[in-house]
């Protein structure tokens, strides 16, 4: 089992990580390029995807919503914080992460801005914490001294769990005794079943696969804490936005259109479209996980709201990232999403 990280140590961990990222941003600021263009005038946008799955930019491209954009895949990534760090340091042009991670990176000095929602939680698609059927964990206090698997520190699952425990009346000392274990989503289900961890956070196809096998019991859903919400955003570097306002508009609006397309078409049609995208790109992937697809969870044209950031204010205070109330408008803009501004 991997090393356990206690909630009490996360502020120091986050601070150290952000210091490294801040230095990386500074070191590449003079050498990074806002974007590159092809001879036909199309703007190259480098991004990371996920194996055996399709994200909203890929769907938008396939639907014809990214005219003038040359979307270039540079690899896969399962960590939101790492995704937007890569964007901030010019390793990619487009990244996606949980809203709290976006705030963290900007507070560290990264010149990035969120332009459209990237994922969300609703009744069909959400982050859920599971335990084994025979687990004694049934209420918040039962988590004291227990281990919880999350895919990365400083992201969605950690923030939801921390907020839930605090709302449930646990003291800071008690919360510090809840141990977080970083595991890739592909390993979390087995870790719960084998007893390597007491609780594990699962979403999307990993959650659906686990449920299909039986033997696990739901402990907590993020929608039980917050209701339906957009949890993360796609970000671009500020220099990219300044140099390529029309490409930025095409990206933000196209991704918003793709989210709307997925939410307004029946599941079978969406799955067939996603399957065709995977097959056409020829990366030797499996389309089998698509049978577990439920939704992208993104609502209202991918428009970003103040509450998408403000709901994490207490957690951001507790982890020492910001002091006092945050100003959501400092971290995002809907200016380039024509659907969000009614154009």
Automatic annotation (TrEMBL):
Coiled coil: none annotated. Pfam families: NMT1. The keyword Transmembrane helix does not apply. Keywords: Signal. Residues 1-34 form the signal peptide. Transmembrane segments: none annotated. InterPro entries: SsuA/THI5. PROSITE patterns: PROKAR_LIPOPROTEIN. This is ABC transporter substrate-binding protein.
């Amino acid at each position: 089992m991997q090393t356990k990280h206690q909630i009490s140590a996360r502020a120091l961990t986050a601070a150290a990580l952000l210091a490294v990222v801040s230095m990386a941003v500074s070191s590449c600021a003079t050498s990074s390029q806002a974007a590159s263009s092809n001879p036909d005038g199309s703007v190259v946008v480098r991004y990371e995807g996920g194996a055996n799955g399709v994200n909203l930019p890929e769907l938008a491209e396939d639907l014809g919503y990214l005219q003038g954009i040359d979307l270039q895949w540079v690899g896969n990534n399962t960590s939101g914080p790492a995704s937007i760090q890569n964007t901030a340091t010019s390793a990619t042009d487009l990244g996606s992460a949980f809203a709290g991670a976006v705030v963290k990176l900007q507070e560290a000095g990264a010149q990035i801005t969120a332009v459209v929602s990237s994922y969300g939680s609703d009744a069909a698609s959400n982050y859920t914490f599971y335990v084994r059927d025979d687990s004694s964990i049934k209420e918040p206090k039962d988590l004291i001294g227990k281990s919880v698997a999350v895919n990365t520190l400083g992201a969605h699952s950690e923030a939801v769990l921390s907020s839930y425990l605090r709302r449930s009346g646990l003291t800071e000392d008690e919360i510090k005794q809840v141990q977080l274990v970083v595991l890739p989503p592909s390993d979390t289900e087995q870790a719960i079943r084998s007893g390597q961890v007491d609780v594990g956070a699962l979403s999307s196809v990993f959650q659906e696969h686990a449920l299909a096998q039986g033997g696990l019991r739901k402990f907590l859903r993020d929608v039980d804490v917050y209701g339906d919400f957009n949890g993360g955003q796609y970000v671009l570097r500020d220099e990219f936005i300044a140099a390529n306002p029309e490409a930025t508009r095409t990206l933000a609006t196209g991704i918003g259109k793709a989210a709307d397309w997925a939410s307004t078409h029946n599941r079978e049609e969406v799955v067939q479209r996603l399957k065709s995208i995977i097959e056409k790109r020829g990366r030797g992937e499996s389309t089998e996980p698509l049978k577990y697809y439920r939704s992208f969870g993104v609502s209202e044209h991918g428009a970003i709201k103040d509450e998408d950031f403000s709901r994490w204010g207490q957690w951001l205070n507790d982890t020492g990232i910001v002091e006092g109330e945050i100003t959501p408008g400092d971290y995002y803009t809907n200016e380039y999403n024509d659907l969000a501004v009614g154009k």
